[in-house]
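(Protein data)
===
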Amino acid sequence: MAPRGRPRAFDREKALDAATELFWRQGYSATSMADLCGAMGINAPSLYAAFGSKEELYAAAIAHFSRTASPDIWGGLDAAPTAYAAFEGVLLGSARTLPGIGHPPGCMVTLSAVGQECGGRLGSLVADARQESVHLLSQRLERAIAAGELPAGLDVAAIARFYTCVQQGMSIQARDGAGFAELEAVARAALAAWPALTAPAAPPHRQGERESR
């Protein structure tokens, strides 16, 4: 009798690729364990042995997405020569990436409704992942201020949150069919606000001071 071949080794990264794309396309609640097993090419016992539960698999998929997809947009943030170039890189990288060539459109984290679907730990996990964008942009602005590139006294949190809102809105637009040209126009419009947002604050008027006529 011929000896049996060894079973094919479980490829965790490929399995996570498949699970991530399925969650990205369908959302958490609409994705069943049967769907996941079919996409990942494993049976239910193997899935539970590898990931523990659907919730744990989703958490692993969010982390996998951040490692593999996010660098296309955020990878040049620190290397850009100026803060403006860094923000431009994020927005134009989003315009190129979010329409979804070879992957679902939009951003898995931005589009996730898991907080509304089941709340709890997964909701907090996704909310924290979204907040990371504000944190990264705030850090880049703080570096520019420390280097003397931008003036002190800027409302760093407001600027970072504004551009995060733009980038996340581009994700929703991409999901609904917007292509590169439409998203680039949004990015350019937001970048046009940069001079006003980063201008030095005007000195306050002294009490009783009259404006010259």
